[in-house]
Amino acid sequence: MARFGGLPVISREDRVRMERAHVLAWPALRSAVIDGWLWRSSGGGSQRANSVSTIDFGGTAAKAAVLQAEACYRALGQPARFHTFEETSPAGLENLLRHRGYWQSESTITMFKRIEPRDAVAGVEVRDDAWVGWRNVYLGRISENRRAVNSLILDRIPGPRAFFGFHDGVETVATALGVLGCGCAVIECVATRLDARRRGAARSVLGALERWAGQQSADWLGLQVAAGNTAAITLYQRLGFVAGSMNRFWVEALRDRR
Description:
Helix content is 31%, strand content 29%. The protein is α+β, with helices and mostly antiparallel strands. It folds into 2 domains: 3-110 and 246-251, Aminopeptidase (3-Layer(aba) Sandwich); 116-218, Aminopeptidase. The N and C termini lie far apart (50 Å).
């Protein structure tokens, strides 16, 4: 494994395929392709499931594609949103959005970890589908406006996938979801019940997920975390994750467009 200064080297190709894997791992309820971009809408509070993914662009005029995306959102009575990162195409899209008055919402960091061999983890249940106890923990730890939509998205997660739940001997108290795509294993839905925090439950489900990912022949683990969530970022750094790219979400200003 190539390293610089003791850290894994994350290439452009790695960032692109990790972002593709994240798009696959959290499918929007409605989507359409606009000149290679993926327009997404789901309602609720998910930024990714309600924004245009800009990994690829096959058109000749970015402004025309932006106008088309805005029209799709306007038809639903929603402001347009775009998701950009280091490898966004075309490269000047962020400047175009600024010029059109878009404002930047909360950013997230994509964190990477090279998958390493792991032993089986005691107390972790693994299933192909999200069971009631798993859903109670995960949905109980997100905002109310996201619960209904995220519950629907959980039913649309493509395989290969696995749901992980840590038990305290009686109930599920921590969750994680692993989804494989593009040679990467994406981590979603990491949550711990409040009364079970600081007991190693999150470490246990993530360890079991890494073991599963290695068995699936993936080389990278990846997750996206709010840039302001310093507690979560610190936890992931302790587990060997490093920041690989910054995701920016741009929201349309509510005014007439031409």
